[in-house]
Amino acid sequence: MPPRSKQTTADTTDAGDGGSAPAKRTYQVEALAKGLRMLGLFSEQRPWMKLTDMAAEAGVPLPTAFRMAATLVTEGFLEQLPDGSYRPAPKVLTLGFSALRGLDLVQLADGPLRRLAAATGQTVNMGVLSDDYVLYLVRLRNNDLVTANIQVGSKLPAVRTSMGKLLLSFLDDGELEARLSPASFAGAAAPNASRSLEELRPTLAEIRRRGWAVQDEELAYGLRSVAAPVLDATGAAVAAVNIAVPAMEFPAAQVVRDLRPQVEDACAEISRLLGGS
C-alpha cells in the first residue's frame, strides 16, 4: 500500500454528508482573531480595562484571556497597570500612526490641510466613518479646545460631530439603520445633540442638500465646528474635513460665514487630487 500523503490544515476539506461537496476552506487563525478583538476593545472613552471585562466582551474564557493579555504584554502591544488592569502600549500607537500616515488620502491631503490651518489659525481635522464613529486621520491643533484629548486615531460619536453628520448624510436609509442604533446616541451629550435617528434624520437631509455640516455644542460645551466632504472620482464622500473653534470666540453665524468657505475650498482641492471634480 503506498504511503498516505500528508495534508496541511489549510488544504484539508470536509466531504460533508455522503461526501458530496467539499466545505469551504478557511485560513483564519482563531487565536490571532481573538487577540485582535481584545485590542479592539480599547477606545477613547475606555482607555483601560480589567481582564474580566476583556474576556467577557471578547467572548473568550478568562484563562484564555489571561494568556492572550500576557502575550500582548510580552510583545509590547499592552501594558499592565499597578491595579492589574490593561491599556494599549506605545507599540500599538506607533503601528496605528504608521498605518494612517501611509494612506494615500492622508498624504494627498497634507498640503491643503496645513494651508487651511495656517490661513485660519484654528484646529483642522480630517476623518472617516468607522462603524458609528468618526475616526480621526489628521489633527492639526492650533487652539485651546475643550476636547483636548483628541489625537490621530481617536474616535468620536458620528451623530455628535460635524464630520460624522456630514458623512452619515451620504448614506441611504438602509445604511443608516444598519450603522446606527440607540446605543449610538447613548451616553453623556451636550444639550444640542440629537437623541435618536428619527430626530437626526431632518438634519441629515438638510446637510445633504446644502453640502456642509455644523456642530454647535453637540459634542461638548464650548465647541463649534464646520465640515465639508472630500469626494472621490465617483462623487462618493470618502472623508470629511472640519475646522473646530471655541464657541466663546466664534458665534455660529461667523463659523458659517467666515470658515465654511475656507474648509469647502480645502476639500475641493483634496477631491481634485483624488480625481474628483
Overview of the molecule:
The protein has 277 residues and is of the alpha+beta class. It folds into two domains: 27-92, Winged helix-like DNA-binding domain superfamily/Winged helix DNA-binding domain (Arc Repressor Mutant, subunit A), CATH 1.10.10.10; 102-273, Beta-Lactamase (2-Layer Sandwich), CATH 3.30.450.40. It contains nine helices and eight strands. It has helices spanning 30-39, 51-58, 62-74, 90-101, 104-120, 162-168, 173-179, 197-210, 252-273; strands at 78-80, 86-88, 123-130, 133-140, 155-157, 213-216, 223-231, 237-246. The strands form two sheets. The chain has a six-stranded antiparallel β-sheet with strand order 5-4-3-8-7-6, with helices on both faces. It has a two-stranded antiparallel ribbon with strand order 1-2. A hairpin with a 5-residue loop joins strand 7 and strand 8. Helix 2 (51-58) packs across helix 3 (62-74). The protein is globular and about 55 Å long. Mean pLDDT is 83; it is low at 1-22.
Notable characteristics:
277 residues, alpha+beta, Arc Repressor Mutant, subunit A, Beta-Lactamase, 2 domains, six-stranded antiparallel β-sheet, two-stranded antiparallel sheet, 9 helices, 8 strands, disordered N terminus
Element layout with pairings:
Layout: H1 30-39, H2 51-58, H3 62-74, E1 78-80, E2 86-88, H4 90-101, H5 104-120, E3 123-130, E4 133-140, E5 155-157, H6 162-168, H7 173-179, H8 197-210, E6 213-216, E7 223-231, E8 237-246, H9 252-273
Antiparallel strand pairs: 1-2, 3-4, 3-8, 4-5, 6-7, 7-8
How is the CATH topology of the largest domain named? Beta-Lactamase
Q: What structural class do the secondary elements suggest?
A: alpha+beta
The whole-angstrom Rg is 23 Å
Given the structure, what is the number of helices? 9
Query: CATH superfamily of the largest domain, please?
Result: GAF domain
Q: What number of structural domains do the residues give?
A: 2
DSSP E strands, number: 8
Second-tier CATH architecture of the largest domain:
2-Layer Sandwich
N-end to C-end Cα span: 69 Å
Portion of residues in beta strands equals 15-25%
Largest sheet: 6 strands, antiparallel
Shape summary: globular
Q: What's the CATH class of the largest domain, please?
A: Alpha Beta
Helix content: 25-40%
pLDDT below 50 for ≥5 consecutive residues: which ranges? 1-22
Spatially, the strands of the biggest sheet line up as 5-4-3-8-7-6
- Round the mean pLDDT to the nearest integer and report it: 83
H-E string: HHHEEHHEEEHHHEEEH
